[in-house]
Amino acid sequence: MEYRDKVVIVTGASSGIGNDAARAFAERGAIVVAVARREGHLKDLVEELRRVSPDSFYLGGDLGDQNFAQEVVRETVHRLGRIDILVNNAGISKHKQIYHLSPDEAEHVMRVNFLSSVWTSLAAIPHMLIQEGGFIVNVSSFAAKVAPPREAIYAASKSAMNSFTEGLWGDLAGSNIHTAIVNPGPIDTEIWDKEDEPAAYDGPKYPTRIVVDAIFEVIEKRRREVTAPKWNLQLVSAQVMKLLAPGVLQAGMARMEPVPPEVIERAREKARKESAGET
Ligand SMILES: NC(=O)c1ccc[n+]([C@@H]2O[C@H](COP(=O)([O-])OP(=O)(O)OC[C@H]3O[C@@H](n4cnc5c(N)ncnc54)[C@H](OP(=O)(O)O)[C@@H]3O)[C@@H](O)[C@H]2O)c1
User: Fold this and answer.
1) SS3 state at 172
2) What is the pTM of this model?
């Protein structure tokens, strides 16, 4: 695969996996459009990228907003004339007791993690059709495979992303637009520090490089789906248990991060008060 002068949009490029992916594409000679909200981080990144890829630039904004997500593709094509690779990587975590999750938070997670990738993909597909080819890589999560404790809405947003991508495999057949899923396991990025209610997971965290390698693998080998890391005993056994012994898997996860009885009691008390206030 020749990346020189290919136009690559990387969302969520201000930190973590997206930041490393943007650098890796630029090092291979691609022109990178780096997208996220924190413009200071993007400015620093693009200054660096321009040393090897002078036409790279950034677009700052909120991908949870449909207009901005579409604008990212419009502006890229306006400035560079094409889009070869779209990496939908921007995302937020949401680890909290279900009793504490508000409807607005749930909608926000779906907008940023799932709908933004639908909006950018739908905007990019017509351009890729005209160019007679392109790649859309969706950075999802292992949570799409096995929902971790207290992450119902996060897992749902990533499962939706995976199902949408699977649908595109059939729907884009014959167009030469390749779509792929990368499912990271636990990766050492700042996403873990952004939790409202910290996760109990304290196992090993892998370097971002393994996800970046997986992004290049799905492009170069035209793979449909790759999990990174590929061989982690905990992840593989969770998937097998989900198929063969889902009850045992649930019991294991409940032991790992139980719901404290006082959390249920407080939620029940709140529900009672609200119910009494409403009637
Ligand atoms: N780290 C892990 O263990 C892990 C595991 C599985 C999946 N993932 C997935 O990998 C992807 C990258 O995460 P990461 O670990 O690299 O975390 P990260 O360092 O927190 O990066 C998340 C990126 O998404 C951007 N972003 C968040 N909300 C946005 C919004 N509304 N509009 C535009 N950009 C937004 C952030 O930039 P701004 O804040 O500047 O907007 C940041 O650049 C995410 O989709 C995540 O779900 C990560």
Assistant:
1) coil
2) 0.97
